[in-house]
Amino acid sequence: MGKGKTRKRSGQSMKSVSIWRYQWMALRTVVIACVIVLIAFFRSFISNLIFETIGLALVLWAIWVIVFIILFWRHKWNACRKHWNVWLGALVFTFAAWGILSVIHHAGFVIGDVRFEQVSLGGETGKYLIGNQGVGLIPEVRLALLICSGIALIAPHASLAFLKFAARCTGAALVAMYHTSRTVLAALKHKLVGFSQAHPPQQLLGQMAGAIQKKMAALFEKKRPETAASTPLERSRGPDGQLRLPIEQRPSQPLSIVREVEEKAPREIPGRKTPELAQLPPIQILDKVAEVQLTEADNLERAKLIENALESYGVEARVVQISPGPSVTQFGIEPGWDRKFKRIVERDERGKTRLEKDGNPIERTEEISKTRVKVERITALANNLALTLASPSIRIEAPVPGKSVVGIEVPNTTTSLVQLRAVIESQAFQRMRAKSSLALALGKGSAGEAFAADLSKMPHLLIAGETGSGKTVCINAIITCLLMHNLSWGLRLLLIDPKRVELVSFAGVPHLISPIVVEMDKAVDALRRAIREMEHRYTRFAAVGARNIDGYNRSPLITEPMPYLVIIVDELAHLMMSAAEVVEPSICRLAQLSRATGIHLIIATQRPSVDVVTGLIKANFPTRIAFAVSSIVDSRTILDTGGAEKLLGKGDMLYMPPDAAKPKRLRGCFASDPEIDRVVSFWVQHPGTQTEADTVARAFAAIPAEESRDEDPMLVTARRLAKDTSHLSTSLLQRRLHIGYPRAARIMDTLEQEGMIRRTEPDSPAEVVGAHEEEVE
User: Fold this and answer.
1) Does the structure show a pLDDT above 90 at 27?
2) Res. 275 pLDDT band, cuts 50 70 90
3) Distance (Å, rounded) from C-alpha 579 to C-alpha 500?
4) Which of 178, 488, 573, 662 counts the highest number of beta carbons within 10 A?
5) Given 3-state DSSP classes, what are the helix, strand and coil percentages for the chain, each rounded to the nearest 5?
6) DSSP for 366-432, written as a single string
7) For range 353-369, the mean pLDDT
8) What are the residues whose beta carbons fall under 8 Å from the beta carbon of 459, sequence distance 6 or more?
9) How far apart are CA 93 and CA 99, in angstroms?
10) What is the average per-residue pLDDT within 585-612?
11) 494 phi and psi angles, rounded to 5 deg
């Protein structure tokens, strides 16, 4: 019974479904017939409306309809869902193609009544799509955005990789532009500084004011009536015919310029013509070369290597500062924390150990204390860090003066020369030059900052280093710097060059107080004359009541200023080997007493051993420069500390000023041979006050070298001993006078020069001349 009812109901439902299906088919047939009839009757109107609205984009959308019919017919909707991004990208490309059609107007293309000369191939809708109506973004930007969006949708991974590559290239380009702009700005700054030095603002303003005044005078002269001889303007002229304007009509700026120039002009000294600043060599005489700098990416990579290397050895630290220099880059390391942890097993409320799924207890670590990492732990890893950075050696400065960081100095892969002009044009040197006329351009620090020093505050300089480390180059740069900023009446040079080839380039400059000394005996005589000159200067100080050279030059009682005297010895070891008993006392006496007289010593040696750089010499030379040496023993001989054995050579040096506890690493200045030749040629062609310079040179040459020799007190006793005996020897003088061998040998030489003794054989006792004549009689 129940089954019969169910079959009856299902039969009725199937009947109703079939009725609805037939009705729907009939309705669809009617609609299609109506559409066909409408298209047939209104074909022209519909076609015109379609082509004016969407244009040839109808073809694109017809392709989309065909594709969807095929997908519907073959039941491929899963492919659409799986590759949705490709279909969406194709749709975006369709809109892009529609936009491209909308910007094309073809006069000869006609469909029905539609002429595409007035309407684009994309129709009116295409114009709104790409913004051809003057609204929103320009069409090219919209088309570019549509194309880029389509590419990103179709190939997302390739697009992302391309974007990363473009970002890296853009970053590198921006970094390159940044460094290029810095270089250009630095070059522009140097040019402006050089132009301001060559043409001071006061001089330019004075010239402009003079030109304006001349033009005004010419204008008034032109307007002045020829017949009126006693007009107010004519009466305003002076006896020399120059125009004298009233006070209220005169320009005020030239007067201030003249007043400023008069205040800055050197004081006129009676009997001497004050030289002008224009006599100094221009800065353009020196070469200007751009310095090579490492990129920021290289420094960041090395900083990461340092942090990873320290972490691998259990030292927590991070790089907080990177200071690139000409030869090394200093990485500022901030020590981290040495942490101690405690392992704790977690328990539940009942006190039982909590277990993981695998049955192991659940543990956690808790920090119980932390202390700062000791500096010694970082300095002890110097060799390990050098191995990590593939560097021959590194230097650790712990701590960096004035900073709470540890400095790790890593050699650069590409070093750059420090040109003398770059340091002279720096603010550090200009500030030093404003305070002292003996300012020295030493070089640039490990962080790239320019460094200058005052020779008058040193007051003597000791330079040491092995062969080829840069000692002579440093001396040449120092001499060139002094010649660039001093006239011959304010500075004199005494150059002693036992090697005969290092300082001969400066021959002929008017600053030399004597010709360059290359022979040993003349070098000793030059030092003795310098001592006599020092004593003579103290006598002149006492005559005018002055305490030092600055007070003497400011005294109104003098007729000529006293120049500074800089004595430069290129190789001390040669002098010490030939006449150590004379050279060492002379140098020490000059170093002890010559500061107040304006005499300063600069001594260099390539053999920093204790027999050359003795303790007495080191005590009188508080300022020292150490170039690369072979061992830590030599470094301690120069600086009393290690570090010079790790230098790179070629100008890399440690500078120890008298007021510093630790040496400072610098890259010395470089003055090329053409630069030195140009400076020397300038002074040969423009000697300035050559007459006064020759007067000082002649006075120094007239000092007898023998007067500086103090007669040995034992010489009188030796003479009496020679009269009492027929033969005299050095050993006899040692025994009788209780003196050493060098002193006894000097006494023997003196007696032989006086003619009291005569030596027949080198190793035999000398014969007393007077005793031999008495025996003959």
Assistant:
1) no
2) very low
3) 18
4) 488
5) 55, 15, 30
6) EEEEEEEPPHHHHHTTHHHHHHHTT-S--EEESSPTTSSSEEEEEE-SS---EEHHHHHTSHHHHHH
7) 81
8) 594, 595, 600, 623
9) 10
10) 90
11) -120, 105
